Amino acid sequence: MKTLNEELNPGRMKPEIRFKLREAHLGTGEGLSYAKIFGRHAHRIAAEIKLGRPLRLGEVVHHIDGNKRNNAFENLMVFASQSAHAAWHAKHDAEKR
């Protein structure tokens, strides 16, 4: 989709336009979803900084305390896949019961 948009409308999403759109949308939500920075989830950016490399395809970032707005490095865990993340939850959620 991104490639098609770039072909059909090459001047549309220049950095200046993205910045204007970002500024227009900031603070308009209900704060229930993941924070984003220029269209990327902030927790994924924080995890990349923590790891010192880009996330690989399929890697999942988990918030240890369950607060999706707490992107502190010590609150983030990276799993190799969604299935590894689900297995972690199956084990740890069962321990809480």
UniProtKB/TrEMBL annotation:
UniProt GO MF annotations: endonuclease activity
Keywords (A to Z) from UniProt: Endonuclease, Hydrolase, Nuclease
The record's Gene3D superfamilies line, in alphabetical order, gives: 3.90.75.20
One Pfam family for this entry, by name?
HNH_3
Report domain HNH nuclease positions.
40-82
Q: What is this protein called?
A: HNH endonuclease
Q: Which organism is it from?
A: Yanshouia hominis
Q: What is the lineage of its organism?
A: Bacteria, Bacillati, Bacillota, Clostridia, Eubacteriales
